[in-house]
Amino acid sequence: MFKKKNGISRVLIMIMVVVTIFTINIERPKALHNGYTNYYGIEMTNDEYFTLLNLGFNDDEIYYMEEDEFLLNKDLDATLLATSNKYYKIVYPMYGASYVEEISELEYLQHSLGHLSEPLSTIYTAYIEETSTISQNGSKYRYKDTVYWLSTPDPRSYDVIAIGFTNSVFVNSNTYFNFKYGNSSGQQTTSTVYYGRTESQYGVSYVYKIPDILTSLTVKLYFDVSKNTNDTLTYLEFCGDYAHSLQTVTSSQASNHYVNSGGIIFDGSVYNYFNAIPCADAYASVNW
Predict the structure, then answer these.
(1) How far, in Å, CA of 261 to CA of 240, rounded?
(2) What is the DSSP letter of 35?
(3) Cross-sheet strand order for the sheet of 158-165
(4) Model pTM?
(5) Which of 45, 133, 146, 214 could crosslink 56 through cysteines, CB 3.0-4.6 Å?
(6) How does DSSP assign 264-287, residue by residue?
(7) What residue spans in the chain does CATH classification 2.60.40.740 cover?
(8) Going by DSSP bridges, is the β-strand pair 140-149/216-227 parallel, antiparallel, or unpaired?
(9) Which residues make Cβ contacts (< 8 Å) with residue 107, sequence separation at least 6?
(10) C-alpha closest to that of 261 among 225, 211, 234
(11) What is the mean pLDDT of the chain?
(12) What is the dihedral of CA 56, 58, 62, 68, to 10 degrees?
């Protein structure tokens, strides 16, 4: 647990947070009047860069975006409607079962700066940021969920990412899944390999294997939806969901679930093998 700070300490922490955020931002060159070139040497115009932002891709995702994904998205007619950021920590206590706790953005940033120490009764704590976005993509809408591990996950087995929604919409595009991980030399690798996939009228999920050796990990899933009713829809919502394995599991065990508007629902036979992360819900007002 973190200690209560006095007024001066709070000011110092916030200054350090702002400085760190600024430092992180300037590490990735922003789109300028002459355009933008990312990690893979892909040259983007300002319009292409901001189209990607409007589709819910953050600057880090754009910086490490490979050419096939760039070509799929760069010319779309996109408007970002909603963004939801959730912060979680998975606590592995010395005694008892691990658990997930939603935390504030400030606590998340304090941990990222090294200002929080875990109690002696804790073996390990992992921190996660999950971002869900809704964008208008021409006559369709884009649902996107991204999970970023601030600290590398443990154990490393089969995890699940999913988007659950109501049957007022249906998936009307290919579904896109990939994960990016880094190694100690700074090299970034993007993979689309998965070991299980579900799609129904209520959601889509992917099962993937966390690499054994990594220093960073980002996982994302997105697709477009169209209306599945003659009624006028005044809002859209979906559940961006993630489940982390608590022990070594098989891909079949991780696939033993279904997805509904509330997210990932595991079969009772494997329920205790996973720490289900609460939904990162996204909402947008529309007239559709």
Answers:
(1) 10
(2) B
(3) 196-200, 203-209, 158-165, 235-245, 274-285
(4) 0.87
(5) 133
(6) EEE-TTTGGGEEEEEEEEEEEE--
(7) 78-84+129-285
(8) antiparallel
(9) 2, 87, 116
(10) 225
(11) 88
(12) -30
Q: What is the pLDDT of residue 34?
A: 62
Peptide bond into 29 cis (omega under 30): no
Does the pLDDT of residue 66 top 50, yes or no? yes
- Asked if residues 52 and 74 have their Cβ atoms less than 8 Å apart, the reply is yes
Those residues with Cβ within 8 angstroms of residue 268's Cβ, 6 or more apart along the chain or in another chain: none
pLDDT in tens, 7-59: 444 444 444 444 444 333 334 445 444 678 999 999 999 999 999 999 999 99
Q: What are phi and psi of 37, to 5 degrees?
A: -125, 130
CB distance 135 to 142 below 8 Å: yes
Two tokens, residue 134: 């809704």
Q: Which residues pair with 204 in a beta bridge?
A: 163, 199
Please measure the distance between the N-terminal and C-terminal CA atoms of the chain and give it in whole angstroms.
46
Letter for the amino acid at 25? N
> If one looks up domain 78-84+129-285 in CATH, what number appears?
2.60.40.740
Q: Please, which pLDDT band fits residue 3 given cuts at 50, 70 and 90?
A: very low
